Amino acid sequence: MEYRLLATLGLLCCSALVGAAEPQFHPPVRLEADGVPIRVEAPGYAAPCLADLTGKGKLDLLVGQFRQGKIQVFKGLGEGKFGKGDWLKAEGKVAEVPGVW
Prior knowledge:
By secondary structure, the protein is α+β, with helices and mostly antiparallel strands.
């Protein structure tokens, strides 16, 4: 039942977009943290995500790394600015999400 409802809502949303104006995108910008461009490790398959990790109303930036499944966390400072990044840690060690490839 729930899946059917979600599918129906999805179709309605897609139907509403038909005939809508062509999407317009701004030019890409390099995000910075602590005044330095954010970089990812090679091979560079980053997976960025914004979330309020502290519950203070400011979005933090999480950037997943392909290599070793690590995640960098950049604390949100507000107004689209981020503090220096640090690796996500669990029990005092850098956390890793194992891959299946």
